[in-house]
Amino acid sequence: MQATTDYISVSSKGNRDMIDITPGIRNAIAKAGVRSGIVTVFVPGSTAAITTLEFEPGLTKDLDEFLEKLIPYNYDYSHHQTWHDDNGSSHLQAAMLGPSVTIPVVNGALTLGTWQQVVLIDCDTRPRSRKIVVQMLY
Amino acid sequence: MQATTDYISVSSKGNRDMIDITPGIRNAIAKAGVRSGIVTVFVPGSTAAITTLEFEPGLTKDLDEFLEKLIPYNYDYSHHQTWHDDNGSSHLQAAMLGPSVTIPVVNGALTLGTWQQVVLIDCDTRPRSRKIVVQMLY
Amino acid sequence: MQATTDYISVSSKGNRDMIDITPGIRNAIAKAGVRSGIVTVFVPGSTAAITTLEFEPGLTKDLDEFLEKLIPYNYDYSHHQTWHDDNGSSHLQAAMLGPSVTIPVVNGALTLGTWQQVVLIDCDTRPRSRKIVVQMLY
């Protein structure tokens, strides 16, 4: 068994921009020749999250509206006093959703459902470049 | 070190039916003879989730009521327009909770607490058959 | 590839006490000599959670207030009837946040962002001793 690292680089618009990174993960496991093992997909940084979602425009809109209602942008977060920043909501949303998912690979394929994609949610309040880590153990 | 895959098949009633899958995971690691490593428990599909919980009827009722209040079934989700579906809330609940947990195995045992079980929460709006992936690296 | 287990012992004050456990994880991977692999950080018990967060006092205050508002301590949870307990909110908060994170290790370092720490959130209603499992595969 071995560990191989790959990366997916994306440019996000921030403000809960959601990006389907499943094709990048599939490329990584194909390139490494993973047949059986796991892949951990991890986003460095504390204002972005990774989860799985049926990636269709209705649902991404629903998730965006839900997160805004749950943890609104316009609120007097203590974090804003610390750095004179405006992204307290981004941090809380990311902490709730979590920075990673780990997915089994069986017979060379991710064990995702047919309508299940791996999605980066960039909660920050400005455009960001993200370099997502794809760590494969196989 | 090697990777071995097992499966747990369950029939759920949907509507946040919660099923304790800890015995199935324990069976899988016993059958494979795992002594030291990790197990990733992953549910394919975007309307179910896996988390850990003290699996007792009071708490499963509390979690059910909390999720219904947080992300109610009766709401005009954009997802319903996409597929003329009724399970927008199911998707959002599953995305928040996440599709998997990874648990260490030490001396042949899961490192769960005494009152901590691994639970499938089926958020879909109808009964479903689920085949949960148990991926062991050891 | 091998699996090595280490532990981080902390004393928490409960009530969503948040403790930065990143130094303990860094010590564990240095001691084991992990160069490339993953580390799964898992808290046994169903009233504590692990996530990543920019660990600064403003944000930990924001997260504390958000969790209290989302899942308040003072509420008639069914769990309280089961055990004549007072920590129903603790269980729900922990189930939402999740008991673990898995982080890649590349070139001997965790792939965390500069302002991203691994944090234990002890949601229980009383002081607790926690022994967090650090499982390394490398």
What are its keywords?
three-stranded antiparallel β-sheet; alpha+beta; 138 residues; homotrimer; 37% strand; Jelly Rolls
- The helix/strand order of chain A is EEHEEHHHEEEE
Please, what is the CATH homologous superfamily of the domain at 10-33 and 74-128 in chain A? YjbQ-like
CATH class of the domain at 10-33 and 74-128 in chain A equals Mainly Beta
Shape of chain A: elongated
Oligomer: homotrimer
Strand order of the largest sheet of chain A: 1-8-3-5-6
Helix content of chain A: 25-40%
Strand portion of chain A: 35-45%
Mean pLDDT of chain A: 97
Kindly identify the CATH topology of the domain at 10-33 and 74-128 in chain A. Answer: Jelly Rolls
CATH architectural group of the domain at 10-33 and 74-128 in chain A: Sandwich
Name the poorly predicted regions of chain A. Answer: none
- How many β strands of chain A by DSSP? 8
Largest interface: A-B, 32 and 31 residues
Largest sheet of chain A: 5 strands, antiparallel
Radius of gyration of chain A: 16 Å
In whole angstroms, how far apart are the ends of chain A?
5 Å
Helix segment tally of chain A: 4
Structural class of chain A: alpha+beta
Provide a compact summary of the structure.
The structure is a homotrimer of 138-residue chains. With 138 residues, chain A is α+β, with helices and mostly antiparallel strands. Chain A is built from four helices and eight strands.
